[in-house]
Design goal:
Helices cover about 45% and strands about 20% of the residues. The chain is α+β, with helices and mostly antiparallel strands.
Length: about 90
């Protein structure tokens, strides 16, 4: 299980940044999610979510996307492979 730490949240945010997604934290009453509008890849997360909810949203979105790992640096690739291992263990 992925630990709900600020460090892991940052790693997830960096992973999305490397594949071209922008993460925005906004307030409001909405379900978090992602969209592509005019070829802009944007993820909107409720800013009042705690770290665990933010991580859960990002992992859920990650599972929905096809990710090309070709340009990942070594640390991001290792983290992504760890997430894949955890996903496969479910």
């Amino acid at each position: 299980m992925l630990k709900y730490t600020t460090a892991n949240l940052k790693k997830l945010e960096n992973l999305f940044k490397e594949v071209g997604y922008k993460i925005i934290y906004e307030k409001g009453h909405f379900n978090s999610g992602y969209c592509i509008v005019n070829e802009r890849k944007t993820i909107v997360i409720n800013k009042f979510y705690k770290t665990d909810a933010r991580i859960n949203c990002l992992v859920y979105i990650l599972n929905e996307l096809e990710i090309d790992t070709e340009g990942f640096d070594e640390e991001t690739l290792t983290f992504y492979e760890l997430l894949l291992t955890k996903r496969g263990a479910k």
